[in-house]
Amino acid sequence: MRSLHPASVAVRSLSRSLNTGFLFFVVGVVVSPGGNGIDLLSVFGLVAVGIVVGIVYEFAYYQRFRYDLTDDTFDVTSGVLARRDRELPLGRIQNVDIRQNVLGRVLGIAAVHIETAGGGQTEVSLEYVSEDEAHRLRRQLRRGASGGKPADDALEADDHTTASDAGPDETLLFEIRPRELVILSVFTIDPGASLLGGIALSFASGFDPATLLPGDRIGWLPGPETGPLVLVWGLLLFLLAAWVVSAVLTFTRYYGFRLTRADDELYYERGLLQRYSGTIPLEKVQALTISKSVPFRWFGYAALSVETAGYAPGQSDSRGTESAIPLADADRVNELARAIEPFGPADLESPPRRARERYAVRYLLVVAAVVGTAALVARYTGVVDRWYLLAAITVLVPLAAHLKWTSRGYQVGDRYFLTRAGFWRRTTKVVPYYRVQAVLHQATIFQRRRNLASVTADTASSASLLGRAATAHDIDDQRGLELQADLEERLQERLRARKRQRTVGQWFREADDGDSSDEDPSPESNDDR
Amino acid sequence: MERLTPRVRVVWLALALVRAAIFGGIVVGAAIGVTRTDLWAGAPDVLVPAAVAIAVALAVLRVVVAWLRYGVWRFELRDDDLYIERGVFTRVRTVVPYVRVQHVDSRRSPLERTTGLATVVVYTAGSRSSDVAIPGLTPARAESLQESLRGLAIESEGEDAV
Hints:
The structure holds two protein chains of two kinds.
Chain A: H1 7-31, H2 40-64, E1 66-69, E2 73-78, E3 84-89, E4 93-100, H3 102-107, E5 109-116, E6 124-130, H4 131-147, H5 157-165, E7 171-175, H6 178-187, H7 191-204, H8 227-254, E8 258-262, E9 265-270, E10 275-281, E11 287-293, H9 294-298, E12 301-307, E13 324-329, H10 330-340, H11 353-380, H12 396-407, E14 409-412, E15 416-421, E16 425-432, E17 438-443, H13 445-449, E18 452-458, E19 470-476, H14 477-512
Antiparallel strand pairs in A: 1-2, 2-3, 4-5, 4-10, 5-6, 7-8, 8-9, 9-10, 11-12, 11-16, 12-13, 14-15, 15-16, 17-18, 18-19
Chain B: H1 8-36, H2 47-72, E1 74-77, E2 81-86, E3 91-97, E4 101-107, H3 110-115, E5 118-124, E6 131-137, H4 139-155
Antiparallel strand pairs in B: 1-2, 2-3, 4-5, 5-6
């Protein structure tokens, strides 16, 4: 049994003290005796109590925390008040992430997060262990994970073990180029950053946007009323601040992004101040997503994310993005995606033409709603004058409908199901058939009028809850039913093929070393079906 | 193709009426509240009747949908998968391969217990269809369904269903 790094008491206490100290500060302010004014002494007394409690708790946490890596499980015993013993079968581990903040880098410690499928949050977090221990754990865990399930890659089993014994021979798959990083930073809008930018601006202006208005320029600017002008100026400054903060954050986040491949797993590293690294097991990949958002597509860039089932849906926005290439040349992204899942050329089938009519009708209704609202506003207030001019948007409707129609498509490949959707953020999903969990055939009341339907191949990927699922939109109703049956049939076929492969691999293994099959955890080994 | 027990319409109708009553109570109550107090001085006289009309229209819609839902609902235990067809407005046909079934629940709400019905919930690891519920089963059928689903899921064992 091992324990955490001793410095973790200090680091955890610090963050804990900030929390409990603040809590007790608030409590102190509220219950402060005397009625008029705050008794500083008792407030700070309470804050000190909070900090001491935090330190004592963290020390106990450190004392109680034990982990152990056995041959086929990772055991963690933890908890101060409520104790918990947890055993993770190594074969079920999905992602292993290592995070290091600035303080951690100074002290040489890192946090290790271990994800499995299922469960609402990260299964095991080791906060903190030493850097070397973190990387040792990552290697051992992943090796155990692929070693604990020998059937899956039994054919490469022997050279695999020798390779990881000698230390993983990593091949560099991708390294972000300075140009790519700059473009990514400039064009990424981080929602958190805009908030930060706004707060920073509020502080800078002393909570009065008028102070930011350059007084000497008002004179020659048109318009006598300064109210809206101040507002516009404030908004402009806010956007600028948000943009700068967002660019800086994105830059530090993806600085030095590298993706390497060692055996059957990907390993990423990134970050300027905080270092993030982790592994993505290739045998657990649920789906690949190639997205080409509008400003990046114009420059010929694309992004790739590798989806596993490791992250819970709620955390996928914060962590799931890590298993991704933020931005790279579209050709490189395609090449890399094919290196991970060898899908053939993307030759997508478009939805029938009547789907385009449907989009046109939908957009016409939107335009009608906008014009109608404007007419109402014009009637009851004086803000809008010539509301009927808005009807000019109608000319955009055919274009928009056509663009939407051309962006959508699907392909039933040899081993993969491909779907594409979205004009602004064109997303191509690649789903291996054997990862399909369920197939949904959906037709809304409007789709039924035109004999259309949408078919979704659902996977266990944690990203598809917030992002887009692999859906073939608005295809012919009958074709949709065929597609549904086809996907199901191909899933069963792939499962049978994989099973055959495993059984054959098993025979080879048994021929190699006769005694290992006895302790093999996979149930298929003794099954002669 | 198997249909649900016709009695399930009672459950759905009761639920529809309760929900419509809650929604109608809020809308009509808010309308009355606004007109009786001086929160909104120029409130038009038609406000309360309009709110009542909206509430009644939605209640009727809910009842109709609850009634129609029975006619649409179908399920079938096929060779390799569970097939479900449902949805009044959006028609959804779901195919859940037995290999992907994680676990099967049988549950009975108070309303279902009084009408003598049960619901079987099939869980997969999928992110959208992670729980597929088959309502309106007799307890005996729910039990046998749960049993056969379990058997089929074990029979078609996969790797780790993820």
